[in-house]
Task: inverse folding
């Protein structure tokens, strides 16, 4: 069965670089067909907010405002150091900053650029929102005093005769001491987990293809870029496509949390706002629960490489039941109510290969199922003995329930 995904991306080189293989059909995307639209960032923000896309590139500012509706995909973010928006002006305004009577342009109400302007210039004039590509021409024509510049313009403003009066990204880095999250790829929470996982896999594969076929991506980028100079396009890619684009990682996740905290402190977001980051299925921690009567059998198999472990249900169902960390409490309550001791076993998800399948089970949620016997000496990376407490509960250790780094 094939699922069609309406995907919105920006026309900027970092996005068309990532999406080149999807736009040209250079890679296969099993189970997924993409309908791709390329638009400017504020149009993407507006249309994503209206529900027009299944997955789209958008500003982290917007995503934080829609945190109850969106999930961050771990591939595709524009996040880093030295890549923030610039507050530009004509040369005669060198050394000045926006005041209450200044004419200021920003690239969209929901952009992270507008959020940063308001965070660092709370007493400055309320900005007028325009398409990002209109900001530099408006400054040069004297139609505005200051403009917040994003994308390729940061590489060309000097030759246009404009000056940078403040690097808002540097202001962020100096005060927040972490990379700046500008934009990311966001999926609607209503997508099925397997669909979301397939989309994430396709985007990651497309980026890997671009990395190994860089020259091949240039025509795709030039066909959509605002600046057509090849050196400018490659400078854009080298700045905005980095390790955090490929995988957010712990530092990227902390940067998103820091942006949320700073925006809440500035009154731009409700207290408690937090964005969820989608975890690909193959990276999730998986566990098996061994009841008291089978612990000795499991330990015997753990002591000898040639032995495998097969719980009784395996003979009937053909697979071993596993759980994600967040599912363990429910599994213990439902299936281990009369058991005083349970051995919690963590498996190395990445080594289980195609024998590990994610299938709907309790309440329709995806559960991991292992379609082969378990080999303790090769598959197991940790164990915890759970004993029923005086309160009558089997409690999962806190280090198991901690969010993944």
Result:
């Amino acid at each position: 069965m094939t699922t069609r995904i309406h995907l919105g991306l920006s026309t900027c080189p970092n996005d068309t670089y990532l999406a080149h293989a999807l736009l040209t059909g250079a890679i296969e995307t099993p189970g997924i067909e993409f309908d791709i639209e390329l638009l400017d960032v504020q149009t993407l923000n507006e249309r994503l907010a209206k529900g027009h896309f299944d997955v789209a590139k958008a500003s982290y500012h917007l995503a934080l405002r829609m945190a109850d509706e969106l999930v961050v995909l771990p591939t595709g973010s524009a996040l880093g150091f030295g890549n923030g928006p610039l507050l530009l002006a004509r040369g005669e305004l060198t050394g000045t900053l926006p005041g209450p009577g200044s004419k200021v342009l920003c690239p969209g109400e929901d952009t992270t650029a507008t959020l940063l302007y308001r965070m660092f210039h709370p007493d400055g004039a309320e900005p007028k929102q325009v398409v990002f590509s209109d900001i530099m021409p408006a400054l040069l024509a004297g139609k505005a005093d200051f403009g917040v510049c994003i994308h390729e313009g940061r590489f060309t403003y000097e030759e246009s005769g404009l000056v940078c009066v403040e690097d808002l990204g540097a202001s962020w880095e100096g005060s927040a001491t972490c990379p700046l999250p500008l934009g990311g790829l966001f999926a609607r929470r209503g997508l099925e987990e397997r669909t979301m996982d397939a989309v994430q896999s396709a985007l990651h594969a497309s980026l890997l293809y671009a990395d190994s076929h860089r020259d091949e991506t240039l025509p795709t980028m030039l066909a959509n870029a605002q600046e057509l100079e090849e050196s400018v396009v490659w400078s854009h890619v080298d700045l905005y496509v980095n390790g955090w684009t490929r995988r957010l990682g712990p530092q990227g996740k902390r940067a998103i949390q820091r942006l949320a905290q700073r925006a809440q402190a500035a009154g731009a977001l409700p207290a408690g706002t937090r964005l969820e980051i989608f975890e690909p299925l193959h990276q999730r921690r998986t566990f098996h629960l061994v009841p008291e009567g089978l612990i000795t059998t499991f330990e015997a198999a753990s002591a000898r490489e040639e032995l495998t472990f097969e719980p009784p249900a395996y003979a009937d169902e053909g697979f071993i039941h596993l759980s994600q960390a967040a599912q363990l409490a429910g599994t213990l309550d439902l299936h281990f109510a009369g058991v005083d001791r349970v051995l919690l076993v963590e498996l190395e998800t990445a080594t289980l290969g195609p024998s590990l399948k994610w299938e709907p089970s309790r309440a329709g949620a995806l559960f991991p199922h292992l379609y082969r016997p378990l080999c303790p000496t090769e598959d197991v990376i940790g164990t915890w003995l759970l004993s029923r407490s005086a309160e009558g509960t089997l409690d999962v250790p806190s280090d198991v329930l901690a969010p993944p780094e």
About this structure: The chain is about 35% helix and 25% strand. The chain has a mean pLDDT of 93.
